[in-house]
Amino acid sequence: MSNELAENKMGVMPVNRLLVTMSLPIMISMLIQALYNIVDSIFVAQISENALTAVSLAFPIQNLMIAVATGTGVGINAMLSKSLGEKDKEKVDLAASNGLFLALLSSIVFIIAGIFGSRLFFLSQTQNAEIVELGTSYLTICCVFSFGVFFQITFERLLQATGRTLLTMITQSTGAIINIILDPIMIFGLLGFPKMGIAGAAAATVIGQIIAAILSVFINHHKNHEVTIRLRGFRPHGATIKRIYAIGVPSIIMASISSVMTYGMNLILIRFTETATTVFGVYFKLQSFIFMPVFGLNNGLVPIVSYNYGARRPKRINAAIKYSIIYAMALMAIGMAVFMLIPETLLSMFNASEKLIEIGVPALRIISLSFLLAGFAIICSSVFQAMGNGMLSLYVSVGRQLVVLLPVAFLLAQTGVLDAVWWAFPIAELVSLILSALFLIHVKRTKINPLSEEHA
């Protein structure tokens, strides 16, 4: 087989059209994913507020799991897309095969952590026995069957890297829809199923992920002919794994920082009342409906930038960045308007008590002020990763969440006024915007502009 690859659409299709066709299917599938997150919590809220609090407190570990899967996926995606741009078939296949190996290792780590660490994790946050029991049951199931989400995300990244984002929409949507259908059946014991409560919510989640993973394997095998996965006689390739993680580890750490931030915020908020942590958990579910489409835009942007960097086409890189920023800011403006105008309606979906409404309304309005600022920073982060400057994304994320957000939230909590704590989010996002703008200028000067000189 020849090592030469034909020109991919990422090198020839008009950039705006390419970005839309690449991103829109992912954005739709991520909206469905966000919908499933919200529906999942709406059903859990019908059990009790303690059950909803347990799911909120479990979020940092679930987020960590997804961080490892998607971060590794970013590394696979960027390396694979760059190799496609360079027409190097051998590197393409090495990236795919070693990426799957890393997904397997990651899932094994979480299976062990889930079995032995779930209860300890909840005890570190609360002494409420009911929340600890509910949360341990939920989190253990999610971790033990985590191989579903790892393989689903990895195989979807292989499709995204070759521009087949419509197919990833099919796999993600299938998993999310199955989850939504199974949630009430398994939580409340409908159609002859046993009533499983919060364990049913976890079971519905992992079943949806496993089915989506199986479907993504099938689609890759039959439709993704630019990538050949070699399992027979497979040996881990150190240089390839190193290249994947050179880009992927900063992304993993960056997303994992979100877990640390959430865990820290939960500890700060629970000192006011457990309802405050529930509000924070509900906020994360709701904001995913705004942020997920922007992350979908990112997933469409990364292979475009990586491919055209490999193919040395700076005009296409700059155009992709410009359009992405415009679309991201527009989406965030819509999200901010919704959070500002109808916070009571959003919260009431979660069987909200009067206390939850009282705390939640100002929280949603204050935090949403950060959305517009976040849109720009998120796009910049993806550009840095796609260009091989993943550490810049890491610096922004650490600065925003650990250096600014948590310390500011802690200091504002000392006032004894819960509403003051929420202002840590807009403050942190302003710092993130400034850092992102400075780093984008640096990347354009050192990496993108020199490509123009080569073509001069």
Can you tag this structure with a few keywords?
mainly alpha; single chain; 456 residues; 83% helix
Overview of the structural elements:
The protein has helices at 15-47, 49-85, 89-123, 129-144, 147-161, 165-188, 198-223, 238-270, 274-310, 314-341, 343-348, 354-367, 371-386, 390-413, 418-421, 424-455. By secondary structure, the chain is mostly helical. The chain has one domain (14-451). The mean pLDDT is 87.
Q: Structurally, how many domains make up the residues?
A: 1
* Residue windows where pLDDT falls under 50 for at least 5 positions: none
Form type: globular
Class of secondary structure makeup: mainly alpha
Output the radius of gyration.
22 Å
Contiguous helical run count: 16
Q: Quick one: biggest sheet? A: none
List the helices and strands and how they pair.
Blueprint: H1 15-47, H2 49-85, H3 89-123, H4 129-144, H5 147-161, H6 165-188, H7 198-223, H8 238-270, H9 274-310, H10 314-341, H11 343-348, H12 354-367, H13 371-386, H14 390-413, H15 418-421, H16 424-455
Short note summarizing the structure:
By secondary structure, the protein is mainly alpha-helical.
